[in-house]
Amino acid sequence: MRIAFHGAARTVTGSKHLITLKNNTQILLDCGLFQGLGNLTEGLNESFGFDPAQVNYLILSHAHIDHCGLLPRLVAEGFRGNIYCTPATSDLCRILLLDSAKIQTQDAEYANKKLREGEPAEMPLYTEKDVLQTLKQFKVIPYNCDFQIDINVILGFTDAGHIVGSAAVHLKINEDGKTTNLTFSGDVGRYGDLLLKSPQSFPQADYVIIESTYGDSLHQDVAPIEDTLREIIEQTCLIRKGKVIIPAFSVGRTQELLYALNAMELKGELPDVQYYVDSPLSLQATEVLRDHPEVYNNGVKEVMKVDHDIFGFKGLKFIESVEESKALNGDPRPCVIISSSGMAEGGRVKHHIRNNISDQKNTILMVGYAEPRSLAGKLLAGQKQVWLFGQDYDVFAEIRSIKSMSAHGDYEDLLQFLSGQNPSLVKQVFLVHGEYKVQQVFAQHLRDKGFQNVIIPEQHQEFEV
């Protein structure tokens, strides 16, 4: 058996890990879009590093675009197998992939308006037609249920606690009369998350592929999330009369923010200002989360006994039309704007940042992971000037962050995720979905816990196991 790493290798995006059995059966774990890597991004998304038509099965850990966003491209280039995922992941992928196709098409149309004579036309990575074909190939499997996807392969999912529907992938692979157990973590959530259940334990594995986004960090904020949110909103909106702009992923982070703000209202602590969610996708994703209450932790279930809408509160408005979104930039009144994308690399939030970043009364609040080369990453690094829409903008707005709102576990969460494993029985641990310097630190944490054979793959590197 061979494992090749064609994405999320020494970076945090583009998740793709290809397993090839001795009989040449190919199983692809995730098929994510590369994001936030500057000039490298386009080339990485146009070349898989393998032949999609040769892949037999696709197993999807969750619906974030950096894990599912190239599925339609894979299908367009010849993949005809089943795509296995949890029911909630299937529901989310429908809205996220259709939105992604729309963006791809719009971007290509915009680029083609500026073509010079003789230049080739820009083509989208995929179209809505490709997405609709992709969705036909989805096959849902619930958590904690062994499912035979191939005569030699049994698949199981456990809850990874990252976003609604997220799963750790467990494969029992039979070759030459011998069974090999391989676990792919997907993205691991937090223990004690605001909304979701904690990651589940899982059976002993021979090989583990695990994310390492925060492999060198602990999410230790001085104050609870609600206290920090209230302090930032009061200081910005009530005292400075400014706006709080929050780049937030449409899936997961936005709902967690709404839940925290709703909790503040229940306690009578919510500042009296307008709250906007400026993302049609966030509205759809929130409805999906409402449709899957089985993912909620016990604390949320207790709140639901006294509050039927845990994502709604006084002063909240979802913005759908472009016209309404633009109107927010012309409205001088203090408010809170939650908008995607989470790393501020595109979407409506980029416009809100441009219109508010050079005014010191405003605050830009980061609530999730930011790739260092992304706009959010540059702001968190303290950059005093940023390039937006063909122009430099001075950074005078206050830049804040709440690290503990990340959907990714810190290194203690990751170690707890692995705590049910006997390290002496794990033959190899492969670190993916992390920056190389961070992975080196996490590798040492793992060795300290007894996992001796820890490997940090490079892009397109293949291993015989």
From TrEMBL:
Residues 13-249 form the Metallo-beta-lactamase domain. Keywords: Hydrolase. SUPFAM superfamilies: Metallo-hydrolase/oxidoreductase. It holds the Pfam family Lactamase_B. Residues 254-379 form the Beta-Casp domain. Transmembrane segments: none annotated. InterPro entries: Beta_Casp (IPR022712), MBL (IPR050698), Metallo-B-lactamas (IPR001279), RibonucZ/Hydroxyglut_hydro (IPR036866), RMMBL (IPR011108). Gene3D superfamilies: 3.40.50.10890, Ribonuclease Z/Hydroxyacylglutathione hydrolase-like (3.60.15.10). The keyword Hydrolase applies. This is MBL fold metallo-hydrolase. It comes from Pedobacter gandavensis. The lineage of its organism: Bacteria, Pseudomonadati, Bacteroidota, Sphingobacteriia, Sphingobacteriales.
